[in-house]
From TrEMBL:
Organism whose genome encodes this protein: Jeotgalicoccus aerolatus
Gene3D superfamilies documented for this protein: 2.20.70.70, 3.30.70.2110, DD-peptidase/beta-lactamase superfamily (3.40.710.10), Penicillin-binding protein 2a (Domain 2) (3.90.1310.10)
Pfam families: PASTA, PBP_dimer, Transpeptidase
Lineage: Bacteria, Bacillati, Bacillota, Bacilli, Bacillales
Protein name listed in UniProt: Penicillin-binding protein 1
Record's subcellular location: Membrane
GO molecular function, one term: hydrolase activity
PANTHER family (alphabetical): PENICILLIN-BINDING PROTEIN 2B (PTHR30627:SF26), PEPTIDOGLYCAN D,D-TRANSPEPTIDASE (PTHR30627)
Enzyme class: hydrolase
Assigned keywords, A-Z: Hydrolase, Membrane
Length: 684
């Protein structure tokens, strides 16, 4: 019987239909997954916009038989309420209910997740018992509500236990950002030891990094103006975009409603990325493209006179916004007044078929081929004469903000239309560039001569002979562009809304007008407060500070870098006295000293060059002390933390304005500093 049973076991390798080989492999073979790091999303200067960050999840032990359990629910609830978004009373109630049920432990849902290192340290150093921490990875968005619909957000997928992109570039480039997981397989013996030569390790491949053309400082200015406009007007929608006039690079873009990807505040109010997915009737900003077509066709003479006021089209009378008109005026005066009748006359002179062709050449009615696969193409309404005529002054047909930016680049670049783009480059885990965003000419839309004449006419639209739209004038720069006030389609009743100030108001501008550096598009829809201002002053409240601060920032940046004689050579000062640096450096270098001695033991950088107002980090002998972080950029603050061997976390964008621990504080191995950044506005 024994021989028979043994033979059966050897042949079939089963007992009671259980596969013994598989059971042995399950028992002695071990497999584990090595998770990759998700790639960063950064701005044009390398400042982090989205990154992985270690966080913690709170669990509370409520079983009194376990040594580390909650001994004082009220005290524990009071401490937890200081670091999570729950009231002391609610936390205490949940703890006491779990104790009564005899549960071993409990969690606090979403409120108890994403706990920072500093909050974890605070709770660990308290006298509260029963609090334990589970490490987890979360996506960190240091700037909060900041180009949110472009960057998007990623969150943990509970099924795959991976971060998955849900919106924006986090979703578009999810496969590249998330990387490829690795694995480790090995055999163990009956005592749990690894069997020699049985291990097989496949390292993970970390995700790609995505670098955007966004400039964080300009984006910060844009967000601040949107906040002000949103608070002042309480509109249904706001949109603002800043682009490089020469290359088409998107330097900043934002909208309201928006959301904070870090806290999810405002999440769900608007899924639409207005820069690419929002198609609307633009109003009079569209007129500059009909003007360019008329100039190219040789039918626009600024001194030609026409009768303003109204024109009959089919069975409809179409009026200028001043229904009585301005009498007999020149074409140039008609452009300054933003006359609808003038645009219909010009379209008749060009011809409907040719005008449609020009609109299509400017990119309307088709996508720009952007990085967003859901980009809207808009629609050129051209079925009958009435649609054709109303399209000439920006009604009936629809466009997107990115199309307006693209079309404007053609006028400002001698007729060459530039493709707007917002991804600068994508690099893999090895640092190799796998995608390189570059300036790209879409086509030669009009001749250089026609573009020059069009710009000359546009330059009269602000501060021209009629001094129309003076609210967009700047004391420091020559700003020009085209305003727009479009009627809004009424989805409930059909036709257009006819209430007071129920418009979409916008401005498509550029500056300086003689050598444009940036294009700014700003729009507001259906203000609910201070409505009349949107008619009297348009979007000047938001457009003007955004344009001026952007130009000042760009000019200051370029001026500093271009001064070759201002570069400071940095040598090796190791072993020298700290006072000797006064003789070695000029007073534009900000020296940050860590240590309470006089002799320099280390510094960064070394044998290098610095620009004026850059920082030199110096370590002296003796105990380390915290320096003053004020004035450092985000990158400098993080570099200084690495130099000192301490953890530095940042909040905000721009330059350091405050720090969580005072300068001069002794540094220990547990020291952690949080610094708060804000705008480096040249006016500050």
């Amino acid at each position: 019987m024994i021989i028979g049973q043994f033979t059966k076991l050897m042949v079939f390798q089963t007992i009671d239909d259980e596969d013994l080989v598989a059971r042995g492999e399950d028992k002695y073979s071990v497999s584990a997954i090595n998770e990759p790091e998700r790639g960063d999303i950064v701005d044009r200067a390398g400042n982090v916009l989205a990154s992985d960050m270690e966080a913690y999840r709170i669990a509370i032990i409520t079983d009194e038989n376990y040594p580390n359990h909650v001994s004082n629910p009220e005290e524990t609830a009071s401490l937890l309420a200081e670091v999570i978004d729950m009231s002391k009373e609610d936390i205490q109630t949940e703890i006491e209910e779990n104790i009564e049920k005899g549960q071993f432990q409990m969690e606090l849902g979403q409120a108890g997740r994403n706990i920072s290192y500093n909050d974890k340290k605070f709770l660990e150093e308290s006298e509260a018992t029963g609090i334990v921490f589970e490490p987890e990875t979360r996506r960190f968005y240091p700037n909060g509500q900041f180009a949110s619909h472009l960057i998007g957000y990623a969150e943990m997928n509970n099924e795959s236990n991976e971060l998955d992109g849900q919106l924006g570039f986090e979703r578009i480039y999810n496969d590249l950002l998330k990387g490829e997981p690795g694995s480790i397989d090995y055999d163990q013996d009956v005592w749990g030891y690894i069997v020699p030569n049985s291990d097989n390790v496949k390292p993970p491949v970390n995700g790609h990094d995505v670098k955007l053309t966004i400039d964080s400082n300009i984006q910060l200015y844009l967000e601040e103006t949107l906040n002000d406009m949103d608070e002042h007007f309480k509109p249904e929608e706001l949109i603002a975009v800043v682009a490089d006039a020469d290359t088409g690079e998107i330097l900043a873009s934002g909208q309201r409603p928006s959301f904070n990807p870090e806290t999810r505040e405002g999440f769900g109010e608007s899924w639409l990325n207005m820069l690419y997915e929002y198609s609307f009737e633009p109003g009079s900003t569209f007129k500059v493209f009909g003007l360019a077509a008329a100039i190219e066709e040789g039918v626009y003479d600024p001194d030609t006179v026409y009768t303003s006021g109204s024109m009959d089209v089919m069975d409809t009378t179409i009026y200028d916004w001043e229904t009585e008109g301005w009498g007999y005026i020149t074409y140039n005066e008609g452009m300054q007044y933003s006359s609808n009748v003038l645009m219909m006359i010009l379209q008749d002179k060009v011809g409907a078929d040719k005008m449609l062709d020009y609109y299509q050449k400017f990119g309307f009615g088709q996508t720009t081929g952007s990085e967003f696969p859901t980009e809207s193409a808009g629609q050129i309404a051209w079925d009958n004469e009435l649609q054709q005529k109303t399209t000439s002054f920006g009604q009936t047909s629809t466009v997107t903000p990115i199309q307006l930016i693209q079309g404007m680049t053609a006028l400002l670049n001698e007729g060459e239309m530039k493709k707007p783009y917002v991804v600068d480059e994508i690099t893999d885990d090895a640092g190799d560039v796998v995608y390189d965003g570059k300036e790209e000419t879409v086509s030669q839309v009009i001749s250089p001569e026609a573009a020059e004449k069009t710009v000359s006419e546009m330059n009269t639209l602000i501060g021209g002979s009629l001094d129309h739209n003076p609210q967009y004038k700047s004391d420091e720069y020559e700003v020009t562009g085209k305003s727009g006030t479009a009627q809004i389609y009424d989805p409930e009743n059909g036709g257009y809304m006819d209430g007071d100030y129920q418009f979409f108001t916008s401005f498509l501008g550029y500056a300086p007008k003689d050598d444009p550096e940036v294009i700014v598009y700003y729009g507001i829809k259906l203000a609910s407060e201070n409505k009349s201002e949107t008619w009297d002053n348009g979007v000047a409240r938001g457009f003007n500070p955004l344009m001026e601060r952007t130009l000042k920032y760009l000019e200051v940046s370029e001026a500093d870098v271009s001064k070759e004689n201002s570069v400071v050579e940095i040598g090796d000062y190791t072993g020298k006295e700290i006072d000797a640096l006064t003789d070695e450096l000029n007073d534009t270098i900000d020296v940050k000293v860590v240590g309470n001695g006089n002799e320099i033991v280390e510094h960064y950088p070394k044998d290098d060059r610095l620009l004026p107002y850059d920082s030199l980090f110096v370590k002296t002998e003796g105990d380390l002390t915290l320096p003053d972080f004020t004035g450092l950029s985000k990158r400098e603050a993080l570099t200084l933390g690495d130099f000192m061997g301490i953890e530095v976390t940042v909040e905000g964008e721009g330059y350091v304005k405050s720090q969580s621990q005072n300068s001069g504080t002794a540094v220990t191995e547990d020291t952690a500093v949080e610094v708060t950044l804000s705008s480096n506005d040249p006016n500050d």
